[in-house]
Amino acid sequence: MIKKLILLFFLATTFGYAQHTITGKMQPAGDYEWMILYHMQGAKQNYIANADIKEGAFSFTLSDTLNVGIYRLVYDLQNQLFIDVIYNNEDIAFTFNPENPNHEIQFTSSEENKLYYSYLNKSAGIQYTLDSLQVAYFSTQNKPKLNTLYQKKHADLVKTQEQSEKQSKGKLAYHFIKASGRYNASQPIEKPNDYLKSTKTHFFDTVDFNNETLLGSTFITDKINDYIFYLNASDDYQVNNQLKKEAITTVVTKIGTNYRLAKDIEEVLLYNFTQQQNVPIVQFILENYYNKLPASYQDLDFKKDVEVKIKTAIGNKAPNINWTINNVKNNLYKLSESDTYIVVFWSSQCGHCLKEIPVLNDYLKGNTKIKVIAVGMEEETSKPIWQKLILNYPSFINVYGAHKWKNEFAQEYGVTSTPSYFILDANKNILAKPDTIEDVKAFFEGKN
Fold first, then answer.
1. How many domains does the chain have?
2. Contact, 421 vs 305, CB < 8 A?
3. What contacts 21, CB < 8 A, 6 or more positions away?
4. 305 C-beta neighbours (distance < 10 Å), count
5. Separation in Å, CA 424 to CA 121, 195, 213, 319
6. 224-245 pLDDT, tens digit each
7. Which of 43, 77, 105 is the endpoint of a domain?
8. Residue 45 lies in a domain
9. Are 362 and 308 in contact (CB under 8 A)?
10. pTM for the whole thing?
11. What is the pLDDT of residues 21-34, one digit of tens each?
12. What CA–CA distances, in Å, run from 178 to 89, 219, 402, 410?
């Protein structure tokens, strides 16, 4: 009896704390050395572990305390190559083509992933055919025949969706399958504009913005990005911005009072549009949405960083810089003798600066049409070194930038690294923000 109790205790312990694995095989193996495993939580990813890739194979043994959800396997950081898998307390095993991971993948273990990826493959193929028929319908002379073909494919897609939802009911995959269901009109739409309007109107029909499973992945973020950046786009700058504003308004309205999601989405959008230096859209998001979030959801440091970056966006007037030389006060805005100005932030303690600033000086030697305002970001301890170095650059306007990173001009320009270059026109509007001295040269040589 005691032996039986011990055996039962051993089995209960074994099953209660069973560990699971993720194993994969690349076909072909490719030239990849390691795989990194992350747990996705919305747009954020938390590092879990890393493993060596040997002859295309890798394996992870998962902790028995690991939460269920979406996990990302990254094998090429530079090119952003990865695979997302659903983990729900089961072993996961699969083979895939590392050059085409989402379309050439097969799971040998994990019912969750078998169901989800099977659904994606089936529905994507039918949807592609349906879209092709719809596009052909706009210009065909044989509409009855295309209509019949379209309705047949439409019925196939509806059946695939219903079957996949039924098969995955009760699993994590169900949430993603249901949310992936796309609206298609039961018959082809006559005009392209009406088709686009219908697609936009029904784009989020199946998405629950409060579904915790979806929120624990990049699904909603990806869906929103597709809607804003691809479905609402135009080659005309003004039209494109108007479409973006309308799309953002639609998204924020759909999100409603889910402030956690609103904060995440708005910060992603602010970051992206700041990178694009699209000042009107950044200001639109800040003024109409981000600034109106409850105070506890606003990241003031993030907002300040965005505001500084758009202040120095290309096309904007550069922030003013003041200096006093030989008891004479002057500033950037008063300068008028040159066609072009270069504002460069550098430091005597910066190795890259000590290489690039002499090159800048030599490159502009004898050029009276370009004036350099060189702000030396220094502490009092490095000031004597800076004072000695600037004797080599008599044609520059050398401005002492006290307090280094806390220097008021550096903060106005959003400087986070040295050297930082800003090329201005005669009116002090920002023309370019080159990364290196070679980029500075390329700018001027490209103008000629």
1. 2
2. no
3. 59, 60, 61, 62, 91, 92, 93
4. 16
5. 52, 45, 49, 11
6. 999 999 999 999 999 999 999 9
7. 105
8. yes
9. no
10. 0.80
11. 999 999 999 899 99
12. 21, 12, 58, 50
Beta strands in 2-101 (DSSP E): 21-26, 34-41, 44-52, 57-61, 69-76, 81-87, 92-96
Classify residue 342: in a domain, yes or no: yes
Quick one: which H or E segment has residue 422? strand 420-425
Phi, psi of 207 (to 5 degrees): -100, 125
pLDDT at 447: 65
Q: Which amino acid is at 126?
A: I
SS3 of 251, please? helix
Of 76, 105, 134, the residue at which a domain comes to its end is 105
Backbone phi and psi for residue 426, each to the nearest 5 degrees, phi listed first:
-60, -25
Residue at 226 is within a domain: no
Interval 360-378: pLDDT, tens: 999 999 999 999 999 999 9
In a domain, 423, yes or no: yes
Residue pair 136/195 in contact (Cβ under 8 Å)? The answer is: no
Q: Looking at residue 90, which CATH number applies to its domain?
A: 2.60.40.1120
Q: Give the domain extent around 368.
A: 322-447
Of 363, 377, 370, which Cα lies nearest the Cα of 432? 370
Kindly report the CA angle at 11 between 6 and 13, in degrees rounded to 5? 95
Contact 368, 374 (CB under 8 A): no
* Separation CA 413–CA 312 (nearest Å): 6
> Strands, E, within 156-303: which ranges?
none
Q: How far is CA 17 from CA 46, 89, 114, in A?
A: 23, 11, 24
What CATH number should be reported for the domain holding residue 388?
A: 3.40.30.10
